[in-house]
Amino acid sequence: MLKTLARAGLAGAVCSVALSGAVSAATPAEFYKTKRMQLYVGTTPGGEYDTQSRLVSRHLGRHIPGNPSFVVQNMPGGGGIKMALWLFNVPAKDGTNMGVIGNNFPAMQAVGHPSVKIDFTRFNWIGAIAPVVETLGVWHTTGVTKFEDLKTKTVIAGATGTASITYLYPTIMNKYLGTKIKVVPGYSGGSIINAALEKGEVQARNNSWSSWKATKAQWLKEGKVRVIVQAGPKAKDLNVPSLEDLAANDNDRKIIGLVVSGAYLGRPLALTPGVPADRVAAMRKAFDDTMKDPVFLAEAKKLRFDIDPVRGEDMQAYLAKLMTFPKALVPQARELIR
To answer: Which of 38, 79, 166, 259 is disulfide-compatible with 159, CB 3.0–4.6 A?
Structure first.
């Protein structure tokens, strides 16, 4: 995974990880033995964030010392920012509260987005099952078959909140690549946008390549949706251009890179700030062990999820690097991440 981050031009030497809290009196095994973990998801049920979270929750407890149980709770709102703010500020900071964080939020922090009133580098990042290949899929009735068609045809894309990647992805295409996409925000989740595609309310949406394959494989097989462009780590099984390669110059490429930076984080799990260091270490090891668990891998394969783990320590370093985004480019990036 470090090689992937290096290719993105954002990896640096691994910085010292900010693990809040002193080592607790009780060992992790003693602490977690009687606990129930809360895993919060900032989207509606059925999308990739939700599906991956529930997949991990069914296996992670076996590898955490003390074997705590898991309860998954959905807390949609604002493209996931409602849950992230709540997780940062409200629940106990003892290692029993975890969330799957919107992977675009660190980029929002890097440009000073007004809705981000927290420091995402203070979360204790645990890991993700794989980085994400972001894509734009277009419904078959539009007649759009290749990227260049989006410069001459107007299509309507559904999105959640204006802070979400579902909104930012087509917006950045309009501004920097000359496409004519009308973006309609306000949908409560990816599964709702999919329903809108089927009903003809919208004609396109941002989605990850893994999500298309996991949740709408039949659409791909039948040609109901066509993936036109990708961003982030390039998929080996997807032959379409990338946003980064289509950028006109280096500064545009850096701005696009910031907007899609969350792709390298995947669907990232994090504990609240302030968790004792030994519990964070135990949780990260448990996640790493889960990613090698044959039972977990078998279920992930059944769900059509590729496993290429992103480790928590690497996430922590990656986020620190994101916060060094060139200040001269912040005003332009902020126009998009708003």
So the answer is: 166
pLDDT the model gives residue 70: 96
Record the pTM: 0.77
CATH number of 134-261: 3.40.190.10
Asked if 325 contacts 111 with a C-beta cutoff of 8 angstroms, the reply is: yes
C-alpha distances in Å from residue 11, one per residue of 264, 273, 307 = 11, 23, 21
Q: What CA–CA distances, in Å, run from 288 to 141, 282, 292? A: 43, 10, 7
Sequence letter at residue 14: V
User: Can you say whether residue 66 is alpha, beta or left, with left for phi > 0 and alpha for psi between -120 and 50 degrees?
Assistant: left
**Structure token pair of residue 96:** 């029993």
Q: What is the pLDDT of residues 299-328, one digit of tens each?
A: 999 998 989 999 999 999 999 999 999 999
Nearest residue to 43 (alpha-carbon basis) of 129, 166, 125? 166
Q: In the chain, where are the structural domains located?
A: 2-132+264-336, 134-261
Give which of 43, 318, 8 is closest to 164, Cα–Cα.
43
Helix boundaries (H) for the chain: 2-7, 28-32, 48-60, 81-89, 105-110, 165-177, 190-199, 209-215, 217-222, 243-246, 250-259, 277-290, 294-302, 312-322, 330-336
Q: What angle do CA 129, 294, 63 make, to 5 degrees?
A: 70
User: Is the pLDDT at 161 greater than 90, yes or no?
Assistant: no
Residue with tokens 């990338």: 242
Correct CATH for 2-132+264-336 of 3.40.220.10, 3.80.30.20, 3.40.190.150, 1.10.3720.10 = 3.40.190.150
| β-bridge mates for residue 74, sequence order | 41
What's the confidence (pLDDT) of residue 195? 96
In this prediction, residue 24 carries a pLDDT of 53
Task: Count CB atoms within 10 A of the CB of residue 70.
Answer: 18
